[in-house]
């Protein structure tokens, strides 16, 4: 996360809302001294007040063999980003920068059992099919008998128990209003420009 306090987000509701909108995450871990990265969509779980992120990986993924014994990981969700030219500021002697939104979740990862994995895959499909409304949602009932079970053998599920959750929403909050709004104007119709204007 960016170290500047102006960009720091700790509001759990805001952070979880961001993860719901941007559920496709990067999972980073160091297992046996080797850095490893995987990508997966997540489903947020509230387990009696404890937040967890459920995900699945292909059996051939570099992290998959380590799910059985578990490991610590950081999950990164990214959103909007945009280059900001110093030409757009009112003030002189500025430098280029990048505005962006991201959320990190850190914690221990444990494997899902088969029932939990099936629940995850069903919930993930329902979560993403809902975004396609008014389309009739796809469910695995549309698959021929035995096909889902055969494909299930090709993936493993994991659950990250969230111990740290924080975000960076870098939207030129460290600039004065004239500079921030000048940068937003320079970005034109880019969606991040609207977020920068909303800070006024």
From TrEMBL:
SUPFAM superfamilies: FMN-binding split barrel. It comes from the Bacteria. Pfam families: FMN_bind_2 (PF04299). InterPro entries: Split_barrel_FMN-bd, TR_PAI2-type. This is Negative transcriptional regulator, PaiB family. It comes from Caulobacter vibrioides OR37.
């Amino acid at each position: 996360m960016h170290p500047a306090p102006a960009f720091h987000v700790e509001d759990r509701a805001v952070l979880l809302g961001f993860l719901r909108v941007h559920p496709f995450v990067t999972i980073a871990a160091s297992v046996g001294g080797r850095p490893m990265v995987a990508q997966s969509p997540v489903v947020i779980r509230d387990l009696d007040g404890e937040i967890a992120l459920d995900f699945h990986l292909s059996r051939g993924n570099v992290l998959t063999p380590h799910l059985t014994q578990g490991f610590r990981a950081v999950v990164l969700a990214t959103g909007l980003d945009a280059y900001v030219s110093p030409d757009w500021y009112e003030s002189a002697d500025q430098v280029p920068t990048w505005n962006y939104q991201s959320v990190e979740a850190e914690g221990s990862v444990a494997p899902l059992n088969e029932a939990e994995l099936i629940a995850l895959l069903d919930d993930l499909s329902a979560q993403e099919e809902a975004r396609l409304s008014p389309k009739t949602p796809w469910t695995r009932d549309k698959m021929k008998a035995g096909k889902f079970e055969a494909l299930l053998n090709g993936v493993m599920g994991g659950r990250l128990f969230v111990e740290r959750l924080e975000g960076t929403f870098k939207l030129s909050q460290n600039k004065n209003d004239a500079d921030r709004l000048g940068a937003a104007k320079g970005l034109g119709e880019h969606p991040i420009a609207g977020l920068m204007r909303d800070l006024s």
